[in-house]
Amino acid sequence: MTTQTPRRATAGSRLAAPYLITELPGPRARALIERDQRVASPSLTRAYPLAAARGEGYVVTDVDGNRFLDFAAGIAVASTGHAHPEVVDAIRRQAGELIHIAATDFYEPRYVEFMERLAAIAPFREPARVFLTNSGTEAVEAAIKLARYHTRRPGIIAFEAGFHGRTMGALSLTNSKIKQRAGFGPLLPMTFHAPFPRVRGWRERTGGDGTAELETLRRTVLGRLIAPSDVAAIVVEPIQGEGGYFAAPAAFLRGLREICDEHGILLVADEIQSGMGRTGRWWAIEHAGVEPDIVTAAKGIASGMPLGAMLGRASLWTWGPGAHGSTFAGNPVCCAAGLATLDLIDRGLRQNAGVMGKRLLAGLQQAANGTSDVRDIRGVGLMVAVEFASHEAANAVQQAAFERGLLVLECGEAALRFSPPLMVDPQAVDAALRIFSDALPAAARPKRGMQEVGG
Ligand SMILES: Cc1ncc(COP(=O)(O)O)c(C=O)c1O
Description:
By secondary structure, this protein is an alpha/beta fold.
């Protein structure tokens, strides 16, 4: 728990300025946290004591009335900003008409329209079919199932430090932190992890173009561990999210495409964190000019309503009725929120993510110039990370930022991620940069034994 003297930040516009009126956590937050800790699963990882009551745009107000600048966006979810009026209106209208029908059993207009809209932006030329889900992990499960069913092969290859979710299939691919896997085995058989290029380019240069990692995939994984003819899919995050915001080099993604084509393996792009306009394009893999066979999405797809999607080339869907389904997935209210979200992303938020991302990246690099505690600063669009020398240093800056009214979240081993709503403006970015600069000296006095967070 942190405490601090009340402060009023005056920088930035009225909206962009955090406004702290109690110590943190305040009295109401403390009471709520106490109740939460009695009933919530101990597996949750709250890095700092934010007890949220309201959200508007990029500002979150806590239960005591303190206002925070939200550069976490509920783990990269609140894409259009909190409570965007068009999203709220769509949810309200739909809730008054039809909340649930079960698309597995019946037809419904919002469900069809939302899938049509997603199919129209699929990152491959062949027409797309879509399966909607309630979460990211379910979209990955659906991708694993479709890949296995279509190819009639059992094997899946994923990458070191990747994160794909926590249900048993997706968890078999996840390995960004060992505590996500510990105690849950046995996981899916015939899943293997190949090295992922960790490209750093700011203070130190590491990672290259992925040639070495492709070589290990070919020689060690496909040459010794699993025959290519047993592999249904290679599942990759074009930008690793929980693993530390590492963008795969274009040559690496092209190499994966070649390996897949050579052996009849499906290439699955997990864009649950990197998709939906966050990098300035609908899909991060578009930056590399590579077409996957399947793509998964969730997080920012419906501005916070629980919705995910698995899109695949039409010719892959060889399964028939009963092979897969879900009671709630593609719920009309979620689809209405999703449609409003797609409209907003299409009407300018995608472009804004690109422009604001550059401003944020440049500003962070400038802010960190004078300190040796920062190891790297990298990112594409509004998926930006600052990597520190240790987890403790990253966490100390995360805490100091919170105490000053800025919400950011750790990722990887020692990085802080900036994943704000795509509607942030220059005032919000500049205010976040000022707070970050102010919080940065905390990296030099890390506290031991702090919790790590995970998506
Ligand atoms: C790339 C990626 N895949 C899958 C998931 C799992 O999504 P969810 O938490 O909605 O199940 C996440 C969540 O962080 C993610 O970042």
